[in-house]
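chain below, 189 aa
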Amino acid sequence: MAAEVGGDSGAPKKGKKKGKARKPKKRPRIDMTPMVDLGFLLLTFFVLTTTMSTPNTMPVVVPPKITEKDEVEPPKIAEGKVITLLVGRAKVYYYVGVEKPELFQTTFSPKSGIRKVLLDRRQKVAQRYGKADEMIVIIKMLDEAQYKDFVDILDEMAIIQQKKYALVDITPEEKSMIEDYKKSIATRS
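prediction:
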C-alpha cells in the first residue's frame, strides 16, 4: 500500500446543485513511498560516512618491566637534578634531593604554584649543571589525590615542557614526612 498525500475519493460532494451531473475533478495525487526511501538512503549515507568523535587521551610512555633476572643497574643521577612531587588533593608537597630532604607545600595556582617552583628549580639545575633539561621530576600520588590532580600535574609537565619525569609509588617514609609536616604547620598556627 502506497503512502499518499491528496487525491479524491470519487464520491459526489454534498450540498451541490442537482441537475446536470458533473464529472468530479480529480486532484493530483503524490505518492510518498519514494520520498521515504530517499530519506532512509540519505540517513544511512550520513551515518556511515560521518566520523565519530575520537576520545582525547594523553600519551604516557611506560618503560618495559624489569624482572629480577635482568641485571640492569639504574643510571647514576646527581641528587641536585631531582625534584620529588607528592601530589595530594589540590596541593603539592615537594622536596629536592634524597638525603635529609626539606618538605615544602604549594598549590596548582598559575602564578605562585608548582609551575613557578619547577621553573625556578630548572633554572638552578641549568646554572649548576649547564643544561636546563637535566632536571628530573619524580611524581608520587597520595591516597587523597583525585584523578583531576593527576591530570593537573601532567598538564603542568606539558606546559613547562618537562621531558624527564617519572610516576612512582609513594613510600611509607614520605607519608610520615607529610604527617610530620602537617603537625609542624598546625603547631605554628
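The chain has a mean pLDDT of 80. DSSP finds four helices and seven strands in the chain.
thats it, cya
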